[in-house]
Amino acid sequence: MSRLFVYSNQGERSRFRIDSEELLPWAIDLHSCAIETQANCAANAAADLAWSASEGGRVQIELNGAPWETPMSAVDAFFQSENLLTQLFASTLNQLVQIHSATVRRPGGGAWMICGPSRSGKTSVTLSLMLDGWSWMTDELTLVSEDAPTRVKGFRRNFNLKEPSWERFPETKDLKHARECWSGHHQAMIRFIDPEMLRPNTFVSEAGLEGILLPEWMPEVSSSSLDLIPGVGATQVLMPEIKFPSPAAFRLVANWMQNIPVYRFQHSDPRKISEIMRQQTPWTR
């Protein structure tokens, strides 16, 4: 029997249909934190994304009713679909500036955006702050409207924690909906987790931007450091992470450089972030 899942992000919805019961456990884990409803449906029910079983235990993905590439393993379909669902939402949210970044909100305060290239430690820093009582907004896309440049919006989806970071976060191992898979795109084992299972009811959809963190993972350093950096250095990190560069995005970053403090966090242990922020930033004491 076919099942139809409805995912929601910032008021937009995407429909995901499963045409095989054996694929249902994978589907439930995929973007589990964003599932709104699931129901039985006809096999031809309209869906943005669909899975059906293929020969040899493989999975055929359909995107907007058309086959997507060739049948693939369930693991590959899982990661392909994670990316496709994110792209589907991103395309409907094109009126907003989209920054490839994580964002958290401190207890009783504002949001901190965590921005940097892959493997800089965005998800690890996010998890560290969550486990210290902060709320989560996203570990993938931060959304901003040009008419409210210091107001950031969250993006609900599960977190991807790469294997080198697993030992730092044993709390994530046995969570409901957690999956550990090899990702060819990341060239790493990924622990795919639902943040709602880690700290229930702590998602925040929108908050005022209070600060920006630029993590740098440096396994050779013995201690962590947090340093206020000037606008030029921050801009060089932020601009490549804007999904669709535009004049609005340039104006947004220029506004932040004038009004929002930016810190570089160099670390070999992301779990030091809460302690060091309490020591060095007036907002988090």
List strands and helices in order, with pairings.
Blueprint: E1 2-9, E2 12-18, H1 24-29, E3 35-41, E4 49-53, E5 59-63, E6 66-72, H2 74-92, E7 97-105, E8 111-115, H3 122-131, E9 135-138, E10 141-144, E11 151-153, E12 159-162, E13 179-183, E14 188-193, H4 195-198, E15 206-217, E16 225-228, H5 231-238, H6 247-259, E17 262-267, H7 273-280
Parallel strand pairs: 2-4, 8-15, 15-17
Antiparallel strand pairs: 1-2, 1-3, 4-5, 5-6, 7-8, 7-9, 7-10, 10-11, 11-15, 12-14, 13-14, 16-17
Helix pairs in contact: 5-6
Q: Find the CATH topology of the largest domain.
A: Phosphoenolpyruvate Carboxykinase, domain 3
Q: In sequence order, what are the helices and strands, one letter per element?
A: EEHEEEEHEEHEEEEEEHEEHHEH
Q: Which CATH-level-2 architecture of the largest domain?
A: Alpha-Beta Complex
Judged by helices, strands and strand pairing, the structural class is alpha+beta
Query: In this structure, how is the largest beta sheet organized?
Result: 6 strands, mixed
Strand order of the largest sheet: 3-1-2-4-5-6
Q: Helix amount, in percent? A: 10-25%
Low-pLDDT stretches:
none
Structural Rg: 19 Å
What is the arithmetic mean of pLDDT?
Answer: 91
Overall 3D form: globular
Attribute tags:
2 domains; 5-stranded mixed beta barrel; 6-stranded mixed β-sheet; globular; alpha+beta; 24% helix; 285 residues; Phosphoenolpyruvate Carboxykinase, domain 3
Task: Explain what you see.
The protein has 285 residues and is α+β, with helices and mostly antiparallel strands. 24% of the residues lie in helices and 35% in strands. The protein has seven helices and 17 strands. It has helices at residues 24-29, 74-92, 122-131, 195-198, 231-238, 247-259, 273-280; strands at residues 2-9, 12-18, 35-41, 49-53, 59-63, 66-72, 97-105, 111-115, 135-138, 141-144, 151-153, 159-162, 179-183, 188-193, 206-217, 225-228, 262-267. A hairpin with a 2-residue loop joins strand 5 and strand 6 (66-72). Helix 5 (231-238) packs antiparallel against helix 6 (247-259). The radius of gyration is 19 Å and the shape is globular.
